Amino acid sequence: MVTLIHQRVEAARAGTNPTVICRMPSGWAVLGDAQFLRGYSLLLADPVVADLNSLDEERRRLFLRDMAILGDALCPHPRPGARGHRIGQMVSATPPG
């Protein structure tokens, strides 16, 4: 079954995903559909995986490095008390069931 994450990655590859910020070694940096905070962004793994633990050690290292680079670029000088970048619960690319 194809999930929204799969669809977004396919659109990024095709150049039709308007939320793409850039291609990174491990995937796609994209703006979040809902901007809870200005600049709210996500890193979509390419190829899509079910979760972080589904990546082998090298791809996981690369993904986490890219996540840190993206976070640093978006929030280089966080204000005290302001939310910076963080690793939250990774949204599963596997449909429930």
Low-confidence sequence ranges: 88-92
Helicity, in percent? 25-40%
- Overall pLDDT: 84
Number of helices: 2
Q: What number of domains?
A: 1
> What's the helix-strand series?
HEEEH
Report how far apart the termini are: 11 Å
Structural class: alpha+beta
What is the tally of beta strands? 3
- Rg over CA atoms, rounded to whole Å, is 14 Å
Q: How would a crystallographer describe the biggest sheet?
A: 3 strands, antiparallel
Gross morphology is globular
Instruction: Please give the order of strands in the largest beta sheet.
Output: 1-2-3
Q: Strand-residue fraction?
A: 15-25%
Summarize the structure.
The protein has 97 residues and is of the alpha+beta class. The protein has helices spanning 4-14, 57-74, and strands at 20-24, 27-31, 41-45.
